[in-house]
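re: ur question from earlier - yeah i can do the single chain one, its not a big deal. heres the input i used so u can compare w yours
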Amino acid sequence: MKILHLATGFPLTYPGGITNYVVALADAQLAAGHEVGAVVGPGSRSELLPASLRLHDFESKRIPAFGLGWTQHDPDSDALRKWLAVSDYQLIHVHMVFGLSAEFLEWLPRCGIPYVISLHDYSHICPRIFMVDYQGDTCRSVDLKKCARCVGRLDQVHTLMRVQRRFGIVLPRFPSSMPAARMQTIRRLLSGAALLLPVSERVRAIYSEIVPEGRYRVVHIGNKSAHNRDYSKSASAAIRAVFIGTLDKKKGAFVLEQLVADCKRIDLKFVFHGRADRIWGPRLAALGVEMRGPYMPSDLPQIMRDADIGLVLPTWEDNGPQVVMEFINYGTPVLATRMGGIPDFVRPGTGFLFDPYTESGMASAKDFLSRLTPGRLSGMAAAISPLLSPEEHAAEMDAIYRRVQAAPVEVAA
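and the output i got, formated as tokens:
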């Protein structure tokens, strides 16, 4: 089969979750005998990619890839459309559509090539991607009236947005009709897909509010940490509660602050590996959190050996956090917020979930930490089963592709 991955915005060798996923999936597909190409942002380092991967760079001169504007027509998108119309690809797998025009996205359902869309995040239905508004507050569903103010007319001027991000200012709110117009195009794009592949049940629920008629199948992506077979922990006199990744508001910095501040146990140590923003880093360090700083992927096995319980505390609808998969695949129980895709992976008996937005939820998390013992941790760790590997996920995707090829959805012109 001749497969094209559409993953615009970033070079394919950018160290991000979606780009890493596309590379791993494409590599497995090439090994299985498929012909595979990818439309990506310019600048990929070809020496880091499979030699037989057909790379097609795309960048619009008119549409900033990560701006908040919405452009109907674009010459570069039109050139991509004309090339794709005469290409020999048999199936398109859509991941990201940054920088593409409305015309291109409206054409895709009519192009005659069946396509599936992986719903990795909320970028299709939220111009700000994370369903976090301009004030940094979480959106639990899509409200177009709120979107009209959140992505106002001034937000769509890319130069102003760059100034805003650099200096942390808030632009005046002038409501815009753009989010509603954008949503009409996106609805057609999603409705025309042979299958929509949300990465978690919560992602499916949110998208289903917008496109209830969509053909959904939840597909949990694979993580190479599933190959780990060493679940041992290093010796420690204290229980080590470990947070890894990025530490900011939406990732739950204030939740972590409350847990640390209210935990009075001297035998419980909080450790952070990663990058913290300029506000939360000093605050948490002052409370006694060990700030270990950034880490490399090669450091992960040792970090996991030194972790007795993992902390995953987002306050946004985190679609399918990889860090949860890594903790589980290293045999580490998880204390996590009941947000986004986390409940798909943290099962009863393997960790503890709580609502960060209620007093009772926060109280339950603090009570869990206060009662935590090495014996209870051992019991939870023993109940953990490895999640999907990239190879198992690729086999599942192969079956999905074959199903789509056998019975493609016919979309009216």
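The radius of gyration is 22 Å. not sure if urs matches, ping me
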